[in-house]
Structure formats: C-alpha cells, structure tokens
Amino acid sequence: MLKFFSLIILISIIPPIYSQTSSQKFDEAMSAYHNQQYVQSNRLFEEFFNEYKIVDEVYATAKYYSAESLLKLGRKDEAAIGFEYLVKTYNWSNYRDKALYNLGLIYYNSGKYELSRNKLKMLLNDYPESEFYGNSLYWVGESFSAENKPKEAIQFLEEAVADKRNKKYADYSIYTLANAYEKTGDYNNAVKYYDQLLTYHKNSTLATSSQIRIGICYFKLKDYQSSIVELKSPKLINLSDEMYSESIYLLATSYYRVGEYNDAEKSYMEVLQKFPDAKYARDSKYGLAWTYFQQKKYNEAFSQFDELSIESDSLGIKSQFWKGECKRYLGKNNEANAIYKEFLEKYPNDPLVQEVQYQLGVVYFNTNNTDLATRYLISANSSEDSVIRGKSFAMLGEIELNKGNFKAAKNYFEMVLANKGAEKSVHSRALLGLGISLYHLNDNKTALKYLNELENSDPGFETQKLNFFLAENYFASNDYKAALNNYNNSTGTDQEINSQALYGKAYSYFNTGDYENAAYQFSDYIKKNQKNKRLSDAKLRLADSYFGSKNYTAASKVYQELFSADAKLSTDPYARYQYAQALYKSGKTNEAISEFRSIQEKFPNSDYAEVSLYTIGWIHFQKKEYTQSIAQYNTVISKYPNTKLEPIIYYSIGDAQFNMEKYDSAIVNYEKVLSQFPSSQYVFDAVTGIQYSYVAKGNPEKAVSFLGEFVSKNPSLSYADQLMFKKGEIYYSLRQYDKAKSEYKSFTSAYPNSKLVADAYYWIGKSSQNLGQGEEAIFNFDKVFNNFKNSELASASVLEMGLIYRSSKNYDAAISTYNRGINELKKSAKIPEFQYNKGMTLLEKNSFQEAYSVFEEVVMYYPGTVFGDKSKFELALIDIAGGRYTTADEYLMSLSENRTDDLGAKSQYYLGQSLYDQAKYNEAITALVRVRTVYSRYEEWLMRSYLLLGDCYVKLNDKRNAAEMYRAVLTKYSGTPIGDEAQQKLRKVQ
Length: 990
Fold this sequence. Notes:
Layout: H1 2-12, H2 20-34, H3 38-51, H4 57-72, H5 76-89, H6 96-109, H7 113-126, H8 133-146, H9 150-162, H10 170-183, H11 187-200, H12 207-220, H13 224-231, H14 234-237, H15 241-257, H16 261-274, H17 281-294, H18 298-308, H19 314-329, H20 333-346, H21 353-366, H22 370-380, H23 386-403, H24 406-418, H25 424-440, H26 444-457, H27 463-476, H28 480-488, H29 495-511, H30 515-528, H31 535-548, H32 552-565, H33 567-570, H34 573-585, H35 589-602, H36 607-622, H37 626-639, H38 646-659, H39 663-676, H40 683-696, H41 700-713, H42 720-733, H43 737-750, H44 757-770, H45 774-787, H46 792-807, H47 811-824, H48 831-844, H49 848-861, H50 866-881, H51 885-898, H52 902-917, H53 921-934, H54 939-955, H55 959-973, H56 977-989
Helix pairs in contact: 2-3, 3-4, 4-5, 5-6, 6-7, 6-8, 7-8, 8-9, 8-10, 9-10, 10-11, 11-12, 12-13, 12-15, 15-16, 15-17, 16-17, 17-18, 18-19, 19-20, 20-21, 21-22, 21-23, 22-23, 23-24, 23-25, 24-25, 25-26, 25-27, 26-27, 27-28, 27-29, 28-29, 29-30, 30-31, 31-32, 31-34, 32-34, 34-35, 34-36, ...
C-alpha cells in the first residue's frame, strides 16, 4: 500500500508534458487492478503505454502491474514477458525484486527450473533485504529438489530454514530439506529435520507425512525397531481408520521395496483383515499379490490378481495382465497366452496393450515360434512406454542374432541404446548384443567400445559371454594379451563358450610366440574336445607349438599322428614342411632332408617346394658341408629359374664360399645380390659379406674403399649411413685407432642426422682413449652425454670419462662426472654402476667414510643387483679394516650364500680371512673349505684359500695338514709368486 501512495505523490510532481489523459489512464488501470478487474486493468495499462513516453518510475510501475494483471488472468507466458522487460530495462525500479520473484514462480510452475533459479538467485544477490529473500531461498531449493538434485537443494533449503523472513514456507522448507537429505541417503539428517517439523510445526499439514517418513528413514537405516515405533506410534494409532490403514500400507510398501517380503505380506494382510473396506484395501491386495510374486508363490499371487481383475479399474486391468505373468512364470504358456489374448479383447485401448503384446512375443520366443514372436514384438514397439519399446527391440535383436542376421540385429540393438528410457538390464543386453553383432560384422573397434561400456556400467551382467566376446574382439584386433585376460575370465556354465575360450586362449599364446603355454592349452583342448570339428586344426597347432618351443621330437610325433589320422592334412604342404623342420630340429637330419625333398617332388608348385630345396642346402651349410650346400642352392635355381629365393641363394652361396676361405668367389656371389637385386633385403648383408671378405684377405683398405664406392653409387639407400659407419668399425677392430677416429669424424660430418651419430662420437672417444689422447676422448664422451641423453651410450660415456679421470688420479673430476650421470640420467639402468664407481673413486681418494656411505646407499636402493652386491663386498672390506668383524661377516656370508660367481668365491675367501683375523681358526677352516667345494673353478681364490688354510692349521699346530695345503699350491704354481709364497711357508713347517 505504501508503494501505491508513493505513486500518487509521484504523479503529482510529473512535469507539465505529462498529459492529464495519461494520468487518468494510470489511475483507472490501478483502480481496475485493485478491484480485481484484471482484463480491464491490462487494457488500460496498454492504452497508458501508447500515450506515456517517459521512462520513469511511473512507467516501470505500470509495466509491473500490467504483467501482474496478466498473471492474475492465468496468462503466465505473457506475464513473464512483461516481468522480464521490467527486470532487464528498469534496474532502479522498486518493483524489480517482486518481478524477479514472480518470474521465479512462473518458471518453477512451468517446470523451467533453471530459469526459475536464475531469477531467484538474481533477487538473492541484488536484494538481500527484500521481503521475498527467505521465500526465494525456499523456491530455489524446491527447484533443485524437483530436478532430483538434492545436494544442491540442501544448500539453499538450509538457508531458507534459518531465515526468519521465510514464514510462509517455513514448514515446507523443513520438509523439503528433510526429503532432500533422504534422497542423498543421509537418513540421520532427514530424521533430524522431519523431527524439527513435528516439534515446531505440530499443526502443519505435513506433520503426519513427516511422522511416517521418520519411520521409513529409520527403516532405511536398518533401525527396524525405531521404524516400528514410529509407524506404530500412538499418534498413528489414534488416527482415523483411513489414516491408520494408510500408515500400515506404507509400512508394508516400505518392507516390500527393501525386499522384506514376509514382513510386507504380514502388513498387507493386516490392512486387509482389519480394514477390508479401507481406501487402501485394493492397493494392499495388489501389494500382497506382488509380495507373493516376488517370493515366487505364483499360485497365491495368481489368486490375488484374479480377484482384483474382476473389476475394470486400473488395478483390475493391471491384475489381468499379471495373472498372465503368473501363468508364464509357472511355465503354463498356453494359459498365459489365453489370459494375454483375453486382455487384448477386453482392453484394446489400454496402455498395457503393448506390454501384453510384448509378453506374447516372449512366450512365443520361449517356444521357438520366432515368426509369431516377431509379429507381436513389432506391434509392441508402438507403445509410448520407453521401457516396453526397449525390451521389444532387445528381443527382436536377440531373434535376429540367433538367426545370424547380424546387420538387422545391430539395428535393433542400436534402437534400444537410442531409447533413453530402457531398463538397465535391457540396456546392458543391448550393449552385449551390439558387441556380438559388430564382432560378426568384423567391426571389432566399435564392438569393443560397447562391450567395454557394458563391463564398466554393469560388470556383473552375463560375465561369461561378455568376457568371451571381449576376448574374441581383442583377438581379432591382434591384442592377444588383452584377449588372454578375458579368455581366462570366460569360464562358466556354458560349455560351448568354455570350449571356444580354451581354443582362443591357445591361439593367443601361439600368436604371441609363447609356444610352451600354447602347447599346454592346445593339448588341454584336444583332451576335452575329442569330437569337435576343430580337432585336426588344434592338433596341427599343437605340433606347431611344440616346434615353436623347440620340442622338436614331440612336434614330429604329433605331425606323424596327424598324417595317419587325417588324409587331408597328410597332403598339406605346410604341415609336411613343418614336419620336415621338426625332424631336422630334433636331430633327424637325414629324415628331414628326405622329407624336404619329398615335398618338392609331391608338391612342386606349392609355396613350400622351392623353400624345401633351399632348406636342404641350408642344412648342409649348418653341417659345414659347404660344397654340398652350394650344389643344392644351385639346384634350386636350375629347377626354379624365376624363384624369389634367388637373392638369398646367392648370398648363401657367398657365405659358404667365405667359410671355405674362397673369398674371391664369395665376393662374386655377394656382388650378384647387389647387381641383380639392388632392392632386396639381403643387399645390406651382401655388402657386409664383401667387407668381411676383403678384411679376411688382409685388404681392409679395399673393404673401406668398396663401402665408399657402393654408397657413392647408391646415395638413396636408406641404410647408407650404416654402411659408412662400418668403415670406422673396420679400422677399430684392427686397432688402427687413428684411421678409425678419422672415419668416425667423417661420418659425423656426412650424416649429422643419422641415428648413429651418438655411436660415432662415442667411438671417436674410445679411439682417442686408446691413443692416449685423454682430453679429446673426454671431449667426445662429454658430447655424447650432453647431446644424446636418451642413448644408452650416454651412460657408457659417463663410465668412460670417470675411468679416464681416475687413471690420471683426478678423483674430484671423476666424482663430479658420476654425480652428473646420477642426477641427469635418472632413468638409466646404469645408476647403480655410477654409484658404485663413485664409491670406488672415494676409496682411491682415501675418503673411506664417504665411500662407506655411498656403498650403503647402493646396497639399500639396489638390492640384488651386481653393483649392490659389489658394494656390499666393499663395505665388508672397510669393516674388516676397521675391526667391525660382525658386520663384515654378515655381508660376506650373505654374498657367499647367494652368489655362485667370482664375487661369491671372493666373498667366501674373505669370510675365511675375517675369521682368521679374529683367531676363529676352526670356523675359518670351515669357511675356506667351502671355497674348494663350491667355487673350485675360480682358481685364484681356490689357491689363496689353500694358503690361508695352511696358515690356520699352523695356528692350530697341525703342521701335517698345513704342509699338505702349501704343497697343493706349490704343485700347480711352482715358479710363480703365489708358488714362491707357498714354498716359503712350507719350509717353515718342515
């Protein structure tokens, strides 16, 4: 009312240009509005707008009441346009907050919740002191709740409950807040707020609902006693029969929804027995029928549904349908069909018709009458119920899938996925069906997309079939590791899938080259599937697996069995060729040669004829029968002049002549590969052969010049850099380090982008190192380290630089180099070696404590590695020197028990030395004898142990055994330093 009076004042001070007519129109419009004459009010306001052209508070006020009039007339969309105009145009208007509030309510009531919130939040932000602030908080929360966004709702509803201005909706705010907590599963807070409503708003229309919801929340919290207390509280008992029966009905329904069917049954029965005429009596009977149904008491359920179906209300119609379902679940398909068809006759226009048609389709599907099933399922697709459409499309997809019509099946399953209302189980079935259909259509990538989606969204759905088809698609995509994982998870009750999974698993191992596991799986498959059509193939792959795992004897045996059992396989050139290979590999050379020759004679036009003859030559080559080998190679060319094997034959003849030291003849044949087959894969090997031939002839310069000439003639070769790199290798192998260095330097200039550049700089460093040019060596090693950190040679360069610095006693530089390697090559496998060498450098520098710390670090972080154990040995020596024998002995015993190499032998000897130093002579003897029994092949430590054994016996005054030990050394090493030492010791005990 204050705003209305302010308008009067406002009008009185309007400038003269404000016509008297406009003023009257405004007054008349406002008067009509207050008299609830909203049509006239709206018309007068429109006339006012046509005359009044000043944008001021009066104009804004008219806009507000014009929209308000439309709102009162129920013309919400037009009202919203007016309010929106005011909100956007007149930020200064006194009516803007109310316009925002009205917009929020209009949009809320229209289901446009986000728009509603936008307006209400604008009000909250712009007008924190508005009378509508508290109510707006409530409606924002209510809008989130309506969108089932309880977490967002809670934030605003808690503010609404706390805001004292929200009096109109105080109880509703509390109830909706409690309900939001209930939706999030926070039943404790839900109870708290329901209880708050009962405490502070006892007379609210929501009080009874709150009481019942408290009982339900306690039930969800599994606090059944509290639930019973709430739903059977005196307040509920004292209610009218209608309210009380409703509470018992809700209790029963709550029991039903959480699967407590016995309790639900009792509560439903209570309603029916105590209140047979109550409002919820038929609902309770329907609920009781469903309770029986869920307990698989289909006859009892049928009885209840049958009674309900007498009437034609909604429950009666539904019950007619579920009568049929009871019969279907009892396996009485004919009776179910009769009930379904009766339903279609009685209720042809009922929304359940399509579901009945769907169930008829299910019955016919289960009785293998797919034509009738398809007819009814297609009819069911006209349903507006997305659940029924989803189920119908899914079953049609199953029918087409079973028929092998994979494209049609795919289309049906895609329709299910496009149907957002399909049940989760139906959606899952469609994902599986689509994955299977796409597998058969060879679209493995898309198939995997859908099958993986199913595995993530519903991992427990038909796991055997899901894992099997995941495996099949991975197998078809050559991802055998993933295929194996899923094949292993494909075991289940379907024996056909078990069989196919075992077969796929065997092939997965086979295709990854894990022939031992493949052989095991194929063998297992053969045992379990003696009558399977894949038996011969499995046996063939078993033989191939034995061959691949180098069990050639077993392979040849299986091939022989196959040839005897399967006439078709006995004439398969591939199988015969594998058999011949198995014979050769198992040492039956003559039989193999005979079989290879037989393959060429029996299958002269097969892919294996030429290669069989070539293999005979190769066998002679392996037996070093080079003359026969060359003759056999020539036979291949004479019988097959256009053979594709010609380049490898000439190359092989060259190798045979090289091994016969006929280097000129070898070069001739290698050159045939170059001249006649310049694009062959054997060109590189032939060039290498020519190189080695010239070197073997003692003419390395010719080899080098040949490489240069060949590359010069063939500059486009992809491996030209590799050939030119060999020039440096030739000189380095001949220890001509000056020439090697020169060639490597030329290489870096000619091929700066080659992958071998790092190698070239490294070998320049090695050549310089061998020439005693330490600074130049370090320069090149450092270049490798700085510029090629991803190369393994970066680590090698660190070690080489460290070695050079140590040899010149520049220990600080060596340590700095090792630290750089440790810090900058963190992923290198050489880090333990860097650390170890750093420790050794510190020892050489006499920094024993620092060295000890470094060795400890290597032992701690790299246990079980060779440098971890070497560090452990160095720790033991330092401990012995420091008199810390217990720690030293622990290290040495650990090494001697776990290593069988030189380090183990050395550790065993020093353990004896440590015990000797401690005057534990008998224990020392035991330790030293173990050097002889376990490490006898390590001569140095064996002889040293004999000498120390002799010393132990001397300490024990056993001169006879001492002399025996010294003589053992003297016998083998007389005239050597260790022999001289033994001689001196022997003289002392004689």
